Amino acid sequence: ATQVQKERLDKAGFSQLRLTESWTLEEGKGYYVIHNDSSILAFRLGKDKQAGFSIVGAHTDSPLLKLKPSPIMEAAGLVKLNIEVYGGPLLHTWFDRPLSLAGRVIVNGSPLKSLFVNIDRDLLIIPSVAIHMRRDPKEEWNPQKELLPLFAQGPCQEEDLLELLAEELKIKKEEILDYDLYCYPREKGTFLGKDDEFISIGRLDNLGMCHAGLCALVESEATDKTQIMANFDNEEVGSRTTQGANSGLLRNLLQKISLAQGLTQEEHLSRVYSSFMFSCDQAHAVHPNYEEKADPTNHPKMGDGPVIKLSASKSYATDGYGAALCKKLCKEHDIPYQTFVNRSDMRGGSTIGPISEGQTDIQGLDLGIAVLGMHSVRELQAAKDQKLFIDLLKAFLESK
Ligand code: ZN
Description:
Blueprint (H helix, E strand, L loop, with lengths): L1 H10 L3 E2 L13 E6 L3 E6 L8 E7 L4 E12 L2 E9 L12 E9 L5 E6 L24 H4 L3 E3 L5 H12 L6 E10 L4 E3 L5 E4 L2 H16 L6 E7 L16 H12 L4 H8 L3 E5 L2 E2 L22 E3 L10 H13 L5 E3 L11 H9 L3 E5 L1 E3 L6 E4 H15 L3
Parallel strand pairs: 1-2, 4-13, 4-14, 14-18, 15-19, 16-17
Antiparallel strand pairs: 2-3, 3-13, 5-6, 5-10, 6-9, 7-8, 7-10, 11-12, 12-20, 16-18, 19-20
This protein binds zinc ion (ZN).
């Protein structure tokens, strides 16, 4: 996900900076940093260095199955791989579909080198057990027992798996020191519905929002304010990593920008306190088969525009002020909007919104697109919501 965003930013004329170096920046120009291969933060320097930052944030990760070390397991004369669950996937959606492995391989050298790898063919499958052998539908899935993908018929060792990766990367398997590899579904995304009005694809949560933030930043005109896209890894497991939102990454990026522009610490802080963040993460649409699961008075619908997310517990950053600011923008740009709150007897998810507020002191709000099947291996949204959402983010980034 980060690599694709990098390529699009390169194409749009943004230059890569390193967090380990000192920066020389030019007004109106675009830059980006990548941290630990999996978070990507980009910005276009504003014309007024005292003006605040306008930030759109999202997360690059999605719930997946992660390969464990020493993953080879034999059972019933077949070879399967040992995996653990990353985040909270809907486990039942992972059965009986072609899967493969992708991620990064760390190669020996000084310094160590990360290589991205995707075994671009149907490689694995998790066969479900027959209905005759598992009658109780309420029984929970046991990931250590039931989610292990089938890898080979014959006997094999970890060396064979390393050989597969080495072949793909055109290196020697002895060079591989370690890896972060994940199973992913092979089926492509598709438009469906009577008028092709829906998109069915994996990882809409939250690559849909990374896509929207990226398009909005690339397409926006430069303003006085510095416009920022901050897409973090590891939201699905609590954001507590150096590349997650619960780190100093965004705070330090902002400080490095101000330092490069010659601002004092006091001027930088004034700038921080006049900044605002749109934290973007998918929202739940009302499900046509589970209408009773929705809040009685707030009914987000696929195709009806961006969804402002609120929660009294502050699991979302939005408050009345943030919601009002967003509604004002929508009204000025003819963009429809909706609101989401959880049922009062149901606990919902959280986002990078409140975490980023805690790390940066920058006020923000949470919003997303109304989707169905969140955390399924394939999620669903209305196609037209994507454009509406990009329009809203652009309006925010270009606002005074
Ligand atoms: Zn999410």
